[in-house]
Amino acid sequence: MKATATACANLALIKYWGKRDAAQNIPANDSVSVTLDGLTATTTVEFDAALARDEIELNGARTEDARIRRQLDHVRRLAGTTDGARVVTTTTFPVRAGLASSAAGMAALSAAAARAARLRLDDRALSALARLGSGSAARSIHGGFVHWHAGTDHASSFAEPLARADALDLAIAAVVLTETPKPVESTEAMERTQATSPLYPARLAYVEGAIDRLTLALHAGDLPGVGQIAELDALNLHACMMTTDPPLLFWVPETVALLHDVWAHRERTGRTVYFSIDAGANVFLLGSPDEIERALASLPTVARATRVLRSRPGPGVEYPSKHLF
Ligand code: PMV
């Protein structure tokens, strides 16, 4: 059987950083994200006994991606099959542009492969399956605002919806300042942080309260509250990374310039625009749709961006009827 799934990328407002179990991507802390409308990956999967090995295509080019093959193996194991798979994926946003594309890709792959293998997984089981491929993919199964429960084992580590997409009149702009791949992959960066940053235990102690505060702000429709909490969390994460041994500093000069722009803009105009930063140099702006457009038009460092991607809270996994092959 052939199946196709579409999933969006997501931006963590309270970030996942560090693992309790590296093999299964069981995280050290809960996290909360917003699913990013329009930044999607669509994947078609077909299992075929005649295929000796998996055939994988990403945005028109053949690839030998070990992570995709491993994720297909998880699905084969659950379905009790050894069939090879043909996998075709297209994304609506640039991969390897310094934006986390793995969450959308792994969520779409997991959903399409599970359906193609006729597995009947509920949303929890599908989220846990996606997590095995890429931790943050667990959250891309759902739309709107999403809470990933760290859990303690495979079955208890899954994401579920926290608030609907319209809980907040939020716009998100990804301001791409550099498309150079980050110098250290997140898996290694997380390990180094856990092993060496003296600030990391303090982060774990603070995260639970931050998630409670964020949840309250979200349910109250308090955009400035959500923005403040998300901004502080990004800085908290980067403080941990900067204090690893050897240190991890993902920012480029434009990153710092843009943070100052956002603060100056808030100070000068009283406008409620906030930022978040993943494990990279690029900056996400958060605010109401109007405020984001004003900020994009007036913040000096935005003019130096290589591209700006606009988004809103988006939907969870969908299964379009049209296949990619
Ligand atoms: O899922 P990974 O291994 O790409 O790690 C994601 C890490 C952050 O994007 C920095 C935080 C998060 O929660 O998405």
Q: How would you portray this structure in words?
A:
Strands 1, 4, 5, 6, 7, 8 and 9 form a seven-stranded mixed beta sheet that branches. The radius of gyration is 19 Å and the shape is globular. Helix 1 packs parallel to helix 2, helix 1 runs antiparallel to helix 3 and helix 5 runs antiparallel to helix 6. It folds into two domains: 164 residues, Ribosomal Protein S5, domain 2; 145 residues, GHMP kinase, C-terminal domain (Alpha-Beta Plaits), CATH 3.30.70.890. It contains eight helices and 13 strands. The model has no long low-confidence stretch (mean pLDDT 96). With 325 residues, it is an alpha+beta fold. Strand 5 and strand 6 form a beta hairpin. The longest helix has 20 residues. Bound molecules: (3R)-3-hydroxy-3-methyl-5-(phosphonooxy)pentanoic acid.
